[in-house]
Amino acid sequence: MSRMNGDPIEILMVEDNPSDVRLTREAFKDAKVRNRMHVAVDGEDAMAYLRQEGKHRDALKPDLILLDLNLPKKNGREVLSEIKADPDLKRIPVVILTTSDDEKDVFTAYDLHVNAYIKKPVDLDQFIKIVEAVEDFWLTVVKLPPR
């Protein structure tokens, strides 16, 4: 699904692992849908981006957020909580993409209204398949709210 005006889908990836960022970029590079991926490497930077503060003054509101739980400065649970409590941000779909399969993390994320929780696989091919599935579902099948 592309935007009505032809603009690419805006994706914010909140991830501090450069390898995961690189793999995700590669998987999205050949996407069926035009997209532009922005990366925040910690929770504070993610919230500054979403609130268009500081160096992110001109940032566009993302259509989809890919969020890791284990982040420096402000963890993913705190970021998710702030996003879902903010009337200007709460409708943005958030997909947790993390190494944690702890039941407590899963319950907490859904209690905080995450849209999907995905455990990152260790295997490289599986990781790419997961990212492609996220791209296919969230950017092709789902109707996203207007910015």
Describe this entry's structure for a reader.
By secondary structure, this protein is of the alpha/beta class. It has one domain: Rossmann fold (3-Layer(aba) Sandwich), CATH 3.40.50. The chain contains 5 helices and 5 strands. The protein has helices at residues 18-29, 43-50, 76-85, 103-111, 124-141, and strands spanning 9-14, 35-40, 64-67, 94-98, 116-119. β4, α4 (103-111) and β5 (116-119) form a beta-alpha-beta unit. α1 (18-29) packs across α5 (124-141). The chain is globular, with a radius of gyration of 14 Å. The two termini are 14 Å apart. The mean pLDDT is 86.
Describe this structure in a few short sentences.
The chain has 5 helices and 5 strands.
Corresponding CATH architecture: 3-Layer(aba) Sandwich
Task: Please work out how many helical segments DSSP would assign.
Answer: 5
CATH 4th-level superfamily: Response regulator
Largest sheet: 5 strands, parallel
Helix-strand category: alpha/beta
CATH level 3 topology: Rossmann fold
| Strand arrangement, major sheet | 2-1-3-4-5
Radius of gyration: 14 Å
Hey, roughly how much beta strand do the residues contain?
Answer: 15-25%
Overall helicity:
25-40%
Q: Uncertain runs with pLDDT below 50, 5 residues or more?
A: none
**Secondary-structure element series:** EHEHEHEHEH
Q: How many E-type strands?
A: 5
- C-alpha end-to-end distance: 14 Å
* Oligomeric state: single chain
> Mean of residue pLDDT?
86
